User: Fold these one by one.
Assistant:
Number 1:
Amino acid sequence: MTLYELDPELPWSYIRGFQPVSLCDWPGHISCVLFFGGCNLRCPTCHNSKIAWNPIELPPIPSEKIFSFLQKRKSWLDGIVLTGGEPSQVPKLGSLISELKTVGLPIKFDTNGLEPEMVKTFICSELIDIVAVDIKGPWSKYPDLTGGKCSEERARISLSYLLELAQDWPEYFYFRTTWVPKLSQPDIEEIRSYLPQKQTLHLQDYVPPEKHSKTNSMLDFQVIPPKTETNPTMVQDEGY
């Protein structure tokens, strides 16, 4: 198997999937989606585990192809979504976003919220237009929900920081939770209690990982069949 290393000096090398058109990754927007390899969590319910945990098995998408697509299609796109994996783990990500901003499209940033200072920096620098924060569950359940990669304390401190920012800048934030089997209705209500008054918790349906195994195994092909909200489609090295 050919392996494609991630280069910390080249943030573009972390892009391991590209979806030319999505109607659900940014509600109310027609967007394209960049998938960044790597993640700092190991959630047992991850729906995109190959790109999150084994990105070196996927070839990077050349920046030239992405910019060529954006220049040709930006007139009918409403924005660009940055997701993963976990994009906050990409070194020098700010420089990549600055390059994307030259296209003139709004940018949505998907994150697990564990790098809150990065989010604040991107907002203050006007690099992103909205951030979607995935709240995995009540703080006490984070160790179990993240495969032991995030403590209750870190979840509480990091996400509380973002929740405070959302109180001051509500227009920049979108909070969501995937209702996995380990979450109960009282858990959902507890998560809702964390949010500022003007924010809504958006719930996503859970799809078991085994139903995604076929999708993950097909990432070496050029096109993956159409997506649902919780099952991302990715295009690998297509001519666009």
Number 2:
Amino acid sequence: MRKLLVILTFFIGIAAQSQEAAESPKYDKTATMYKTYADFQAKKGVPAGQYFSFSWSSWGKNTLHTYVNGKEQKFDINDYWGFTVGDFLFRSRQNQIRIPVVVLNIKNSKVFYCEGYMFLDMIRADATSGRSSRTDDSIFYSDDMEGDIYEITKLPKKEKGNPELAGMIECVKKGEKRRGYQAQFNSFYECITTD
């Protein structure tokens, strides 16, 4: 009876692991670097191999780690306009924002982004979510794909007279009143991903 219980427990464990593996996404990790937005539009990127990790420093150095023909390559993403990993488009350092940002939505002639580290973490782990250690703005916007990138909290002041963005501005103002970083992030994320 004890052997049967051990064998049964073993097979249940394997079945649970198989189910978890079946539910985990498998992201395309092919990375391509783009010096300019024009290069991105023309699909003239620098093939960067298979993404496997990233690193960053507090002074703003961001490095994408890939494998090319079995050898590790490192790309300083601040030297590029942006890059792709699979279907995800990231923009690199702009203004004082010293992190990569991932394009989430284009809405009312604005481009909206999210902090890129959590997406890079999610892709690396083939997970449904990533983690981040940021405790300040993690949602951003720009006027276009080449424009300066600003924190979403600057939208109400910078776009005050723009009637197309009135609903978005109200949404951001409500989000700013929420307590705690995670609650604000969730509100801002909802503002830019829903109509």
Number 3:
Amino acid sequence: MTRRALVHGVTECGTRSPTRAGLSGNADPARSTGRQVVAARKRRVPGSKRTRGFTLIEVLAALFLVALVLPAAMRGVSLATVAASETQRRAEAAALTYDKLNDLIATGGWSSEAPEGDFGEDHPAYTWRLTVDDWQGITVKQVMVRVFWESRGVERSLAMATLVYSGEG
């Protein structure tokens, strides 16, 4: 197309530019205006319908899916939270049991100390109990420390044991 300036029309991007007469569908250059191009742009082509939002059925389907998935997801989150809390308490009990057993063995308190107690203000939810039993003879003892705590209304416990030479016999 050559650029002969006979009539000014509106291009697709909305700026005025020279066009040839007759291209806009009007053979009369005096009557050719940009309004015809704009009107042609507003016409809908069959099969190319533009949508601006969701239909009612799409919204209802999405709400139905959310209603099905959300309770299951929240139940999963709740179970994961409970499991994490239980794991944290069990790990803390294991650390307390290990420390108490090592303390009793290192200080020799397993043979003279009171057989139960608590962990003071640092860990008020936990208590411990010591048991000493003979193990295959008189000179070897099994020293076991069991730590107790309550979780969700149920008493839980964790035990660790070791063998100690008692020197008797």
Number 4:
Amino acid sequence: MNINKTNIERGMFIELRYKKTRKHIPDNVKLFDTYYVLVLDIRKEPGDNKTFLHALDLNEINPTVLKTIIKPFPITRRKFAEKGFNGIRFDTSAKSIYETKISKYITTSAKNSYRTFNFKGGIMSTKILNYKIKDNQ
């Protein structure tokens, strides 16, 4: 289901279509890409006018590892457009969550799972995902 990016919240599972915003992109790199992510935080950087979405790329993490990562966090059911969607409730900053709860479970092959997206310039479209979380608690 499509969701306006201004309605995205921490702990949501979303699909986003992203346009790379770097000035110099090599010819062999795709300009657009689709990501399936767990949103850790959305914030404006100090001293900068840009807003960034911090997330875990679900394509880079084994589902068993993801289950272990999210186990300490409460599962929530969120209402959006009269439908319920699963999410995670994070009570601390993205950096703290990543450093204290997540990084120890990320293997060398999944180190690229932490992503930072330019919220205003790069995110072209977003969809909310009803990610199936089973046997988590």
